[in-house]
Specification:
four-stranded mixed sheet; 2 domains; binds glutathione; alpha+beta; globular; Glutathione_S-Trfase_N; glutathione transferase activity; GST_C; Glutathione S-transferase Yfyf (Class Pi), Chain A, domain 2; transferase; Glutathione S-transferase 5
Length: 217
Amino acid sequence: MGLISNMHLYDSTIPSGNAYKVRLLLSHLKIPYTTTNLNILSVPPETRSVEFLAMNPNGRIPTLVLNDGTVLAESNAILFYLAEGTDYLPDDKLQKAQALQWLFFEQYSHEPYVAVWKFRTYWAPGGFDDLCESEVKKLRERGQEAIDVMETHLGSGREWFVGDHYSIADIALYAYTSAAEMIGFKIDGSVKAWLKRVEQQEEWIKIKNDPTGKCLS
Ligand SMILES: N[C@@H](CCC(=O)N[C@@H](CS)C(=O)NCC(=O)O)C(=O)O
């Protein structure tokens, strides 16, 4: 029998919502893994070292090395891979596509605004200083719009984003939405109740603490 090593997750020292998604699902699935935390605030970031770029040419965490050494990048692709065949991804063809719909929504309409707002609020040197007023306004408006889309979806009597089960669609959206109120976005009742439901799931874990002490999550 060949030696099977644990999966290895490249994460960051500061709390990353994208890495948190992966850690949360690994926790739900009770999959053991090892971690390397990279400093993404150094200049250049440790994600841009020759060694790391050889593994993930896009130079970003999360990056997961699977048991056989295969490297998988992009948080939502990692969620999709890990969830296949488990309760966290529906078998039904349409519901699987609906899960993908929310994963793509998160990456195109939510994360580029809410996650970027969080990063600039706590960690980016200079914060928002290099953006003009209209760019800051756009970040804010688009982030709020994405959260409002979530409120509309859940507000029509749904408990979860896809079907009637907690899935990777919820995990992907939870990561940054859970920090959104803290950074000034408005969270209405249905999203608030959904955040609480996620937090009641078995093996739910908190996002890691911020070693810089700037982010209070
Ligand atoms: N679309 C990617 C985004 C990953 C991403 O932006 N990662 C950030 C941390 S949250 C990073 O690695 N930044 C370091 C850098 O860009 O060098 C995903 O979902 O995994």
